[in-house]
TrEMBL record:
It comes from candidate division WWE3 bacterium RIFCSPHIGHO2_01_FULL_42_13. InterPro entries: Hexapep, Trans_hexapeptide_repeat, Trimer_LpxA-like_sf. This is Acetyltransferase. It comes from the Bacteria. Pfam families: Hexapep.
Length: 178
């Protein structure tokens, strides 16, 4: 994997079948699994986990200890705060109905999409199957249980729309009904 200006910290574990874009920086203790595609000029900070087949666009910044599981697509210019957790199964179980260890056949991976320019605050959880719209802003500690439209500020548990933001993330309206 020879890519111009690519930096991979010696403690990072990047699978040989992952694709990493030019100028991306992968810091200490990051794991990137097989089939993952990471765009140009991204930053994966300490302890980030990128599961197999995850798709990440260009100019994405993922902060310390975030977990991005299989089934998640992150478009260009997205910010993922520290300790953000994406899920990918709405009914997770360690065992199947016969009380045997669950296998890939027992699991239904659900697709999640974070659209261009969106930001997700620290310690937020994103439930499987949700879409976070372009330039939406998710407040720290929020739990996203439904789709969030573009340019919406959503906060809380469950996350609810409390305003509209511009491309810089600045509040432009403080309405309660969206």
């Amino acid at each position: 994997m020879e890519t111009k200006d690519l930096y991979i910290h010696p403690t990072a574990d990047v699978h040989l079948n992952a694709q990493i874009g030019e100028g991306t920086k992968i810091w200490n203790w990051v794991q990137v699994r097989e089939g993952a595609v990471i765009g140009r000029l991204c930053i994966l900070s300490k302890g980030v986990y990128i599961d197999k087949d995850v798709q990440i666009g260009d100019f994405v910044k993922i902060q310390n200890n975030a977990t991005v599981y299989s089934g998640v697509t992150i478009e260009d210019g997205v910010f993922i705060g520290p300790h953000v957790c994406f899920t990918n199964d709405l009914y997770p179980r360690a065992v199947n109905e016969r009380f045997e260890p669950a296998s890939e056949e027992d699991w239904q991976k659900i697709q999640t999409l974070v659209e261009r320019g969106a930001s997700i605050g620290a310690n937020s959880t994103i439930l499987a199957g949700r879409t976070i719209g372009e330039y939406a802003l998710i407040g720290a500690g929020s739990v996203v249980t439904k789709d969030i439209p573009e340019y919406i500020l959503a906060v809380g548990n469950p996350a609810r729309a409390v305003g509209e933001v511009d491309k810089r993330g600045r509040l432009v309206s403080n309405r309660k009904n969206f």
